[in-house]
Design a protein that fits this description.
148 residues; alpha+beta; four-stranded antiparallel sheet; 4 helices
Length: 148
């Protein structure tokens, strides 16, 4: 079964937070959830093509089931193809009945205001992509039994 990236991130951030609250009842699981979050950041969230420092989850600002918060810095280019400055942005991802809402925050110089729509589209695309349950299990180092 395939799972949406935003769903997996919500579960992983919530589970990691729960492990921090009760480390004795879940030894080793905090680092497994952290590995899953880092895997998603590295392999499924925007990086490169202006998102030169990647996109990261701001775990302490996420609220289980209500919002995910991401951060990225964007390296802008001018009309001649030269790099022309950086801007920093936060992304608030909220659940809807039919998917997610993506709100990009952060000031942009007037000449780059059109980039905000691109940021939202790129992040929405990345977050609504999927990962197979078997890949998640592999990262978490969990074996699933088969049922006859």
């Amino acid at each position: 079964m395939d799972r949406k990236i935003y769903e997996i991130l919500n579960v992983a951030v919530t589970a990691k937070n729960n492990c921090q609250k009760a480390p004795i009842t879940s030894p080793g699981w905090e680092s497994k959830w952290d590995d899953l979050i880092r895997y998603i950041e590295k392999n499924h969230l925007p990086h490169g093509s202006g998102f030169d420092c990647g996109t990261v989850v701001i775990e302490e600002e996420c609220v289980s089931g209500l919002k995910l918060v991401l951060k990225f810095d964007y390296h802008h280019m001018d009309e001649h193809g030269y790099y022309d400055g950086w801007t920093s942005h936060k992304v608030i991802v909220t659940p809807y009945f039919d998917g997610i809402g993506v709100t990009v925050k952060g000031a942009l110089p007037r000449k780059y205001r059109h980039d905000k729509e691109y940021f939202g589209d790129a992040l929405h695309y990345a977050l609504t992509n999927t990962i197979t349950q078997s890949k998640i299990d592999e990262i978490l180092n969990v074996e699933r039994g088969t049922h006859d």
